[in-house]
From TrEMBL:
Role this protein plays: Glycogen synthase participates in the glycogen biosynthetic process along with glycogenin and glycogen branching enzyme. Extends the primer composed of a few glucose units formed by glycogenin by adding new glucose units to it. In this context, glycogen synthase transfers the glycosyl residue from UDP-Glc to the non-reducing end of alpha-1,4-glucan. Transfers the glycosyl residue from UDP-Glc to the non-reducing end of alpha-1,4-glucan.
Gene Ontology molecular function: alpha-1,4-glucan glucosyltransferase (UDP-glucose donor) activity
Family in the record: Belongs to the glycosyltransferase 3 family.
The enzyme's E.C. designation: 2.4.1.11
UniProt region (Disordered), positions on chain: 637-705
Pathway: Glycan biosynthesis; glycogen biosynthesis
Official protein name in the record: Glycogen [starch] synthase
A GO cellular component annotation in the UniProt record: cytoplasm
Catalytic activity: [(1->4)-alpha-D-glucosyl](n) + UDP-alpha-D-glucose = [(1->4)-alpha-D-glucosyl](n+1) + UDP + H(+)
Length: 705
């Protein structure tokens, strides 16, 4: 059956035009997606497969299944057990169960409710030595007994390959099977399926290379030395050679190899010695509001809750105006250098200096949301929130008393004597409340008691740059070494609400294969800072003509020195502090308009193309693609916003001014609906991802895929 090389695409509800192209004959196919993080949250891959589930279920219906390890707690809390709709799948499961291996089936209770097949690794562990022997005989890869994660991945891969063998034997030529495997933990499944010549199409996706993550964590000059590393030696020194071999073997065994970004494609070409066939960017489920002002209202509501926390945290030192305070944040795994916390702290020190020198009355409160080892909340932080609540209760009590006396006087037709409306007891209560706010120490930098306070990288650098939340500092730092939760007694907010309340997310990562954090900011209409070493930053550079105008600031960490990158980040943040309130509102509107680009309704098409390609390579007689036809993995290019003048100086004030005061001469023309419509009409025609426009030189190893 011939396949058009063009991609199927559901209609996009937002700015982007729609495609209407031939779809895969899904009724004749079964799609299985394999990942260690199916129903098992560990890292970012969980977000990928969870958010992508709905559009995949919409396309494939009951012919789509996810596969992963079984964990009893996760199954009981996230999965509704049921029977497989396909009898061939039931028989394949029974074949494993009758041989002493437990397999569980159900619907994952997330958006889309996909079917999941979960394999109990513990029940099959007695086969480990035999399966290690099979792996050695197959590809000469040996696994040490002490690496439990690698051993578990082999058990999972062996069970999955066994399942696919039973399934394809049951199906015969009735249905064709596609297996999409994520990351090295799913790698043994690819290796064993291909070595046993199971008739199925395979796709393998790496979200970050194993060795790349280890090298960057060790502060290696990674991107300038990609072609110089002795890969085998580096993997051996870090005692991950066997894992690296599994990853590399899976990459070369799969019919189609994909990565999540162009920057990871360059990395994989060197680390794994195979150029990716398709780049499959990560998306999100974007929920559009019916009215533009709705997400702005959510920002105001969440910001007010953050302000309440700040009032308590800085009690006794609250000598700055919260209406002239901006909230910046960085969040993610605690990888100090990889996530760019090092360059961020240095830039904050310089930003503090600039704000003081220019006598800017803007204050910046910066949150570090990175989980670290702690033994409980900081007593001083809890006390601050208690003092704030006590002050609120006192003010409320006095207000009620004041209001009642005022009401009674007005009923009698009298203007009350303001000097006598409050008695001596009221003044005593208020004075005691004021004295309770006195503080002889500075507000704490961290909200928790750190176990490794003296060696903690963030706290050590805070001591070096001297940002201790003193009265003279225009930049204040709050390190919250736990993920946010609405049940926290300190900062009771979910992460999404917290992000909505902030003004700027700062993620100057050195190693970030994709980067969900700036993407989440964009979808919520919050400007962010990213880098050209993150997949998200590269994606935005490729799709948006002027990312900064849309509130996505991209720091050059690839072709500039660390010092130059630090200066650029400092300038981005300082320019942001100079914007007026009106300019920030306009920028948030523009940022939110980019959310269509990150919607799985758009980005899912790259996965569709990968499946087309895998079927063509596995079953060339049944699924044909014209090799001469141009690739249709295209992108769109957003124009500069219509109302932004050619020179950026016209839209960013050259001198600092108050954010809550609109200048009389601020006549920047702006109509949100008119600008959005003009931008929609000006979106440039699709281009092939990876193609460098004329006049630009390609960097080495940056060829399109």
């Amino acid at each position: 059956m011939p396949l058009s090389r063009s991609l199927s695409m559901t209609s996009l509800s937002g700015v982007l035009p729609a495609w209407e192209e031939a779809e895969l004959p899904v009724e004749d196919l079964l799609l299985f997606e394999v990942a260690w993080e199916v129903t098992n949250k560990v890292g970012g891959i969980y977000t990928v497969i969870q958010t992508k589930a709905k559009i995949t279920v919409d396309e494939w219906g009951e012919n789509y299944y996810m596969m992963g390890p079984y964990f009893e707690h996760n199954f009981k809390t996230q999965v509704e057990a049921c029977e497989p709709p396909n009898p061939a799948i039931r028989k394949a499961m029974d074949a494993l169960i009758h041989n002493g291996c437990q397999v569980h089936f159900g619907r994952w209770l997330i958006e889309g409710s996909p079917f999941v097949i979960l394999f109990d690794i513990g029940s099959a562990a007695w086969n480990l030595d035999r399966w290690k022997g099979d792996l050695w005989e197959t590809c000469r890869i040996g696994l040490p007994y002490h690496d439990r994660e690698a051993n578990d991945s082999l058990i999972l891969g062996s069970l999955i390959a066994w399942f696919f063998k039973e399934l394809t034997d049951q199906l015969g030529d009735k249905l064709n099977v596609i297996g999409h495997f994520h990351e090295w933990q799913a790698g043994p499944g690819v290796i064993l399926s291909r070595s046993r010549k199971i008739p199925m199409a395979t796709v393998f996706t790496t979200h970050a290379t194993l060795l790349g993550r280890y090298l960057c964590a060790g502060n290696a000059d990674f991107y300038n030395n990609l072609d110089k590393f002795d890969i085998d030696k580096e993997a051996g020194e870090r005692q991950i050679y066997h894992r690296y071999c599994l990853e590399r073997a899976a990459v070369h065994c799969a019919h189609v190899f994909t990565t999540v970004s162009q920057i990871t494609a360059v990395e994989a070409s060197h680390m794994l010695h195979r150029k990716p066939d398709v780049v499959t960017p990560n998306g999100l489920n974007v929920k559009k509001f019916s009215a533009m002002h709705e997400f702005q209202n959510l920002h105001s509501t969440s910001k007010a809750r953050i302000q309440e926390f700040v009032r308590g945290h800085f009690y006794g030192h609250l000598d700055f105006n919260l209406e002239k305070t901006l909230f910046f944040f960085i969040a993610g795994r605690y990888e100090f250098s990889n996530k760019g916390a090092d360059i961020f702290l240095e830039s904050l020190s310089r930003l503090n200096y600039l704000l003081r020198v220019h006598r800017n009355d803007m204050t910046v409160v910066v949150f570090f949301i990175m989980p670290a080892k702690t033994n409980n909340f900081n007593v001083e932080s809890l006390k601050g929130q208690a003092v704030r609540k006590q002050l609120w209760d006192t003010a409320h009590t006095v207000k009620e008393k004041f209001g009642k006396k005022l009401y009674d006087a007005l009923l009698k037709g009298q203007i009350p004597d303001m000097n006598s409306i409050l008695d001596r007891d009221d003044f005593t209560i208020m004075k005691r409340a004021i004295y309770a706010t006195q503080r002889h120490s500075l507000p704490p930098v961290t909200t928790h008691n750190m176990l490794d306070d003296s060696t903690d990288p963030i706290l050590s650098n805070v001591r070096r740059i001297g940002l201790f939340n003193s009265r003279n500092d225009r930049v204040k730092i709050i390190f919250h070494p736990e993920f946010l939760s609405s049940t926290s007694p300190l900062l009771p907010m979910d992460y999404e609400d917290f992000v909505r309340g902030c003004n700027l997310g700062v993620f100057p990562s050195y190693y970030e294969p994709w980067g969900y954090t700036p993407g989440e900011c964009t979808v919520m209409g919050i400007p962010s800072v990213t880098t050209n070493l993150s997949g998200f930053g590269c994606f935005m550079e490729e799709h948006v003509s002027d990312p900064a105008a849309y509130g996505v600031y991209i720091v050059d960490r690839r072709f500039r020195s660390p010092e130059e990158s630090c200066k650029q980040l400092t300038q981005f943040m300082f320019s942001f502090c100079q914007q007026s309130l009106r300019q920030r509102i306009i920028q948030r509107n523009r940022t939110e308009r980019l959310s269509d680009l990150l919607d799985w309704k758009y980005l899912g098409r790259f996965y569709i193309h990968a499946r087309h390609l895998a079927l063509n390579r596995a079953f060339p007689d049944k699924f044909k693609i014209d090799p001469m036809a141009p690739l249709k993995t295209e992108g769109f290019r957003y124009p500069r916003p219509y109302s932004v003048p050619p020179s950026p100086s016209a839209s960013i004030h050259s001198t600092p001014h108050h954010s809550d005061v609109e200048d009389d001469d601020d006549d920047e023309p702006y109509d949100e609906d008119e600008e959005a419509e003009r931008d929609r009409l000006n979106i440039k025609a699709p281009f092939v991802l990876g193609i460098v426009p004329e006049g630009k030189n390609k960097q080495p190893e940056e060829s399109g895929n």
